[in-house]
Amino acid sequence: DAKTTQPTSMDCAEGRAANLPCNHSTISGNEYVYWYRQIHSQGPQYIIHGLKNNETNEMASLIITEDRKSSTLILPHATLRDTAVYYCIVRITGFQKLVFGTGTRLLVSP
Amino acid sequence: NAGVMQNPRHLVRRRGQEARLRCSPMKGHSHVYWYRQLPEEGLKFMVYLQKENIIDESGMPKERFSAEFPKEGPSILRIQQVVRGDSAAYFCASSPPAGISSYEQYFGPGTRLTVT
């Protein structure tokens, strides 16, 4: 079962930052936070992951609280193509299965 | 570098027939995962394979479903005697060998199976 809690849906205006929260209060010390997204019926796409430090790549930034019980995925300038379901997943890095919850459905509007 | 390839993209089978879904991992990847997404539901893990070995099949239905990843060729997910409840999108993902990256999985476009 998924060990994360995310809002069911969020809206964001095009060009604005999208901040997607995730609660993972039972995360253990060796578990990473991964983010994936699924754009309408396509295969899920890896976005970013982190352990305890904030991370940034070309797609997004990941902010993890100091106690590691929650995190926020930030899309700095959302576009219409960012409309998707975003999944926050915790797992021990390694060849482990991904356990998808219900995710957050992000709608980016003009 | 080509991504994960799956074929066919769409497959229609009648009840009782067999379905074979193929997955070619990304170049250099030796780990393959299969996931299923039922209509209007989330993705569920089915099986994790390395070359010639099944590592974790905890998500595979006990009957009619099997998977393989031979030494040569693509990974195959086989569903025997399909029923309407097998209609779903089946996604394959691959990841590189240990030490190459942080084990993120890269997904293919999926095979949409429709059982009539």
Fraction of residues in H or I helices of chain A: under 10%
Q: Give the termini separation of chain B.
A: 37 Å
User: Largest sheet of chain B at a glance?
Assistant: 7 strands, mixed
Helix fraction of chain B by DSSP (H/I, runs of at least 4): under 10%
SS-derived structural category of chain B? mainly beta
**Biggest interface and which pair forms it?**
A-B, 21 and 27 residues
Which regions of chain B have little confidence, pLDDT < 50, spanning 5+ residues? none
Q: What features would you describe in this structure?
A:
The complex is a heterodimer of chains A (110) and B (116). Chain A has strands at residues 9-13, 18-23, 31-38, 45-50, 55-56, 61-64, 70-75, 84-92, 104-109. Chain A has 110 residues and is an all-beta fold. In chain A, β6 and β7 (70-75) form a beta hairpin. The model of chain A has no long low-confidence stretch (mean pLDDT 92). Chain B is mainly beta and 116 residues long. Chain B is 0% helix and 48% strand. Chain B contains no helices and eleven strands. Chain B has strands at 5-7, 10-13, 19-24, 31-37, 43-50, 53-56, 65-68, 75-79, 88-95, 106-107, 111-115. In chain B, strands 2, 4, 5, 6, 9, 10 and 11 form a seven-stranded mixed beta sheet that branches. A four-stranded antiparallel beta sheet of chain B has the order 1-3-8-7, with no helix packed on it. In chain B, a hairpin with a 6-residue loop joins β7 (65-68) and β8. Chain B is globular.
